[in-house]
Design brief:
The chain is α/β, with parallel strands linked by helices. It contains nine helices and eleven strands. A six-stranded parallel beta sheet has the order 3-2-1-4-5-6, sandwiched between helices. It has a five-stranded antiparallel beta sheet with strand order 7-8-11-9-10. Helix 4 runs parallel beside helix 5. It is elongated, with a radius of gyration of 22 Å.
C-alpha cells in the first residue's frame, strides 16, 4: 500500500490523514502547529512538527516518487505553490492540493499539481444536487455532463422491472448496478426482468440533466 504524506493539518488535512490511517494506509502528517500535531499523533504513522513548505523538511522524510502527497495550506497560495514545485522537482507522481477557488486551482495545476480539490465547491454542488433531486443519495461526476449516482427509486418504479421503467429510452440513463438492502447484496448490470423493491438503491450513469428529471 502506498505511503501518504499529508502536509498541513487544518480541518481538511486532519480528516484526510485520519481517514486514510484508519483505512490502513501509512500516513506521515506534517504541520508547524504543535496543537495540530498533538491531535493527529494517534491517527498517523508519524507526526512531524515542522514547516511543510520547507524543501529540506520534505527531503528529510525521504519522500519517494510513488508516495502520495496531499497539501492543505488553506488560502496560503504561496506555500501551496512552493511545496508543489518542490514535490514536482522530486518526481512525486501524485500531488493533491487543496485550493480555495478556481484562480488558485489554475495556478497549482500549472506548477505541477496532479489534482486540485476545492472542498467548499464540491460540498456546495452536493447540497444543491440533493435539493434539485432529493432521491439522489450520492454521485460521482465523470465529466461536465456525465455522472454516476446512487438514487432511491421513486414510488412509480416500485414493483416494476428494469425493462418496464424504460430508463434508457425515456431518460437516456443506464442502470449499471442495484444495491439491495434486504438481503444485503450488490447486483451488477441487472437484467431487464429485475424487479425494483422499495429497499433497493439504483446505481445509474447518465447526463446530470437527465438524472434530475427522475423525481
Amino acid at each position: 500500500m502506498k505511503r501518504v504524506v499529508v502536509i498541513g493539518l487544518g480541518i481538511f488535512g486532519f480528516n484526510i490523514a485520519k481517514d486514510l490511517y484508519e483505512s490502513g494506509f501509512e500516513v506521515i502528517a506534517i504541520d508547524k502547529n504543535k496543537d495540530n500535531i498533538q491531535k493527529i499523533k494517534d491517527f498517523s504513522t508519524k507526526a512531524i512538527l515542522a514547516d511543510g513548505a520547507d524543501k529540506e523538511v520534505i527531503e528529510s522524510i525521504g519522500i519517494q516518487p510513488d508516495d502520495v502527497a496531499i497539501i492543505s495550506f488553506g488560502e496560503d497560495l504561496a506555500a501551496s505553490t512552493l511545496i508543489t514545485l518542490h514535490l514536482k522537482e522530486m518526481k512525486v507522481k501524485t500531488i493533491i492540493v487543496k485550493a480555495p477557488n478556481e484562480d488558485h486551482k489554475h495556478v497549482l495545476e500549472k506548477v505541477g499539481a496532479t489534482e486540485v480539490v476545492i472542498p467548499e465547491r464540491a460540498m456546495a454542488d452536493k447540497v444543491a444536487k440533493s435539493l434539485v433531486s432529493p432521491n439522489v443519495l450520492d454521485y460521482i461526476p465523470l465529466s461536465e455532463d456525465y455522472t454516476i449516482c446512487e438514487m432511491a427509486p421513486p414510488s412509480s418504479f416500485m414493483g416494476k422491472t428494469i425493462g418496464e421503467i424504460h430508463l434508457r429510452s425515456k431518460y437516456h440513463i443506464e442502470v449499471i448496478a442495484v444495491r439491495e438492502m434486504l438481503p444485503e447484496r450488490l447486483t451488477m448490470v441487472p437484467r431487464a426482468d429485475f424487479v425494483i423493491k422499495d429497499s433497493d438503491i439504483l446505481v445509474v450513469i447518465g447526463r446530470g440533466e437527465d438524472i434530475q428529471k427522475i423525481k
